[in-house]
Amino acid sequence: xxxxxSFYNWDLLxxxxxxxxxxxLQLTLVAMIGGIVLGTLLAMMRLSGIKPLEWIATIYxxxxxxxxxxxxxxxxxxxxxxxxGRPIGAEASAxxxxxxxxxxxYSEIMRAGIQSIPRGQVFAGQAIGLSYGQNMRxxxxxxxxxxxxxxxxxxxxxxxxxxxxxxxxxxYDLFKGFETAGKNLGxxxxxxxxxxxxxxxxxxxxxxxxxxxQKKIAIVR
Length: 221
What we know:
Strand content: under 5%
Number of helices: 8
Order of helices and strands: HHHHHHHH
Radius of gyration: 21 Å
Distance between the termini: 54 Å
């Protein structure tokens, strides 16, 4: 049960961890960008006043927010190949699943941001002849993004942590890299401890950056 500190070396990072970290980073960035874009569209649909669009967006958001992410990952990875007749791969499945799933959460954040804008600014945009889409694009969304930026980044930190769930479909992420190193080198305890420390350092550092950003936004206000 004694820890073997020689396990922590450059070979561990270069041979096992680096590949997984790059995939986790790519997955986080793609899901964040795609999720925010799709989530913003869903938020606009829910606030559009058009009942069919409201219903579709509401069912989508509430449906995905009510299902554990790991189940969505497994369903997509196992059922979509049956529907299309060919495998799609663990990595591609992870990118699509995370983007679609995170959009539901980013949607609620953006909806709160849009609703936080004073109604007077909405009426002012309408008074000068802006359409709903133009009002959103030029008046509402820029302010909503600024107000919700700390919350969006906090959700992104949670997204980075959730990328470890792709192990269930065999994708090689950061956690999988440590796990593989532990199995191959016969030191699973050291591997899991190292994974915990790395996740903590990354997420704690990012959370501190979000706090600083939140203070700057508060000063601007």
